[in-house]
Amino acid sequence: MKTMKVGISSLKEFRDRTLAIAKGDIVPSDSDPKIWFPSTESFARVLTEKNRELLKVIGATHPESLEALATATGRAPSNLSRTLKTMARYGFVTLNKGERGRIRPEVPYQAITLELALR
User: Fold this and answer.
1) How far apart are CA 36 and CA 90, in angstroms?
2) pTM (2 decimals)?
3) C-alpha atoms less than 13 angstroms from C-alpha of 115 in its C-beta half-sphere
């Protein structure tokens, strides 16, 4: 199962980590999170229950266009477009060009795991 790993890190911690990687002080491993959020609240705003359901519908139905997805979910195409663009920025969906220039959303992962370091 292909899984995306997400981490929570303050902006300062993220900046310090990025600088340490650039200096060679830290070598990121394949198991490290690929996507970082500054807070659990920001993560939750993107992956609301409604948006997680949207990901499930995309994964199950493989819609050929935003219009087909709007029909399947009952959501307005303009709302879907904004939501999908936000989720695409984080890699939760990919937006591919389909037939006649239609946008075809895909979910590249079967699961998303959250890593939250307490120290």
Assistant:
1) 9
2) 0.83
3) 14
